[in-house]
Write a structure and sequence with these properties.
This protein has 2 domains: 143 residues, Vaccinia Virus protein VP39 (Rossmann fold, 3-Layer(aba) Sandwich); 106 residues, Adenine-specific Methyltransferase, domain 2 (Orthogonal Bundle). Helix 4 crosses helix 6, helix 4 packs antiparallel against helix 7 and helix 5 crosses helix 6. Strands 3-2-1-4-5-7-6 form a 7-stranded mixed beta sheet, with helices on both faces. The protein has 9 helices and 7 strands; from the N terminus they run ααβαβααααββαβαββ. By secondary structure, the protein is an alpha/beta fold. The relative contact order is 0.16. The N terminus is likely disordered. Helix 8 links the parallel strand 4 and strand 5.
């Protein structure tokens, strides 16, 4: 398989997704992956899964573990893993229904789905698979594909609160992509919870990629609202300590985060926190911003222990 040919891509549009950074991230991978000395891949903040989906198509791992604190996201991954055909059928029906509506009726449809999605949350058992999971994943993908900027955001009650976007012909059901992702997920262990649980899976033959909620680079930017859990500077430093712990377990580690010096040259938070590790700057284009003039190239950080 040529490395320019990506068979599967993330099934959700995700703020902070790493699709645009893949080539840069790949250029910094540990050589032990190519040498097949790394047999296990772990991603504790899987999010949209761009890195996970790419690496597991082009590199051989005996074991793959993904994890996220976002229960809705993990439910969706497990649904695609278990019942992709039923999901495709439901998504296809919803796509046909939606695209055949007038603009005004599409708006009504969107907000009805959003309201249903939020009202049903308390009735969902996130631990035990059921038919409800298929409906919920269908609604999640629909909302993600039709909402403003493809942004996943919840309020303090855990309710999805993004308004409708302006798309003439959104692709809601990408059947072939979902099937390809399902094949990857068949050999993947999927967990809901805090990143710290991944310690049990890590040894000297493991590569861990961390993509935590980014530290905001200004008072008005905040990238922590993908779940109800806040990721403050205290949490960033706890993650640094965990990074250090896994370093002593001899794993190969890579972590992505924002570069505070984009806004303030004196803000060397990560340089201080990870002063004993390798830090590289990569170029990213920030697309999710309500102000189009603020969408542009900025630096992001890759932090590695190799």
């Amino acid at each position: 398989m040529q490395k320019t040919e990506i068979l599967a891509k993330p099934f959700l549009k995700w703020a902070g997704g790493k699709g645009q950074l893949l080539n840069q991230i790949i250029s910094f991978l540990p050589k032990e992956i190519e040498e097949k000395k790394i047999i296990r891949y772990v991603e504790p903040f899987v999010g949209g899964g761009a890195v996970f989906i790419y690496l597991t198509q082009f590199y051989q791992f005996e074991e793959i573990f993904i994890c996220d604190i976002n229960d809705e996201l993990i439910l969706a991954y497990k649904t695609i893993q278990k019942e992709v055909e039923q999901l495709i059928e439901c998504l296809s029906e919803m796509q046909v229904s939606y695209l055949n509506l007038s603009l005004n009726n599409r708006k009504k449809f969107f907000y009805q789905v959003r309201e249903s999605y939020n009202l049903q949350k308390k009735q969902i058992d996130f631990q035990v698979f059921s038919e409800q999971w298929i409906k919920r994943t269908t609604q999640l993908i629909f909302l993600n594909r039709t909402c403003f900027n493809g942004l996943f955001r919840v309020n303090s009650q855990g309710h999805f609160n993004v308004p409708m976007g302006n798309y003439k012909n959104p692709l809601i059901c990408h059947a072939e992509n979902l099937k390809a992702i399902s094949q990857i997920l068949k050999k993947t262990k999927i967990y809901h919870g805090n990143y710290a649980q991944c310690q049990q899976w890590v040894d000297s033959q493991t590569f861990v990629y961390f993509d935590p909620p980014y530290r905001p680079i200004s008072q008005t930017s905040n990238f922590t609202s993908y779940s109800q859990d806040n990721f403050s500077d205290v949490e960033q430093l706890k993650l640094r300590d965990f990074f250090h712990l896994l370093h002593h377990q001899q794993a190969k580690l890579m972590l992505s985060n924002s570069d505070p010096t984009n806004k303030n040259l004196d803000d060397t938070f990560f340089e201080k926190a990870y002063q004993s590790y390798r830090i590289e700057k990569v170029k990213a284009t920030r697309m999710i911003n309500s102000n189009a003039r603020k969408r542009g190239q900025i630096n992001e950080l890759l932090i590695m222990n190799y």
